[in-house]
What does this fold into?
Amino acid sequence: MNIAALQLSSLGMSPNKLDYYLRICRSKNVRVLLLGEYVLNRFFKELESTPISMIKEQSSHQTKTLKSLAKTYGITIVAPIVTVSKEKPYKSIAIFSPSKTHYYQQQFLIDYKHWNEEKFFANEIKEVTAPPVFVIDGVKFGVLAGYELHFNIFWDIFMKKNVDVVLLPTVSTFDSNERWMEIIKTRAFLGSTYILRANRIGEYIHEGVKWNFYGESFCVNPYGKIEAILSDKEELLICSVSKELSKEMRRAWGFKNSLQKRKVL
It folds into this structure.
């Protein structure tokens, strides 16, 4: 099965760019397309000073557009988006399938002094629940927000559910590229799963300091090997995933079996 990551900066209101890339995806028999974080909306630091009415309007427009495009092209589009309810913003990921739309509210949010999503967004802090898992042609996909990569509980859930591919939208910046790459490769190997990472591009200047969103979106296989990687420009990555390879790796290394024997999983 072919899946794709579209590496972009923030999108405007026109659907033309997405339409162009989706036509390419359909010609390559892509079944799932992943976008990075803060692509459908402005970057977080910009959202902090954006009226909630404008955020709501933009998200509503983008939602309508992606629902239509998913249906038109028969492709499931997974994209982070800010949802608004009762005039409060929520950091979410939308799964736009050709027939329906499902939303996942991110459970762990960045809470650092210079980048405090947890303070800005209204996402509830509560007991962790399972992130979304959906199936297309027998291939099982899991969805996780970028920051949630760091928490083992989600990977235990994916292992328990035999997830074949994890879709990971990110907005990584500064000099974090090597760290993110090594963590993702390790997660893929230990979880016997593919990971498709879509990272944002572009830049943001805060108090004279440039935040560079460096791209480098990539697909890593269950061996922990990167199969394809992009640069720091607007690009489309298409890769092939195999449910059989994920199953083979689970059998070969037996990590899940070892945990189940000890009633850990």
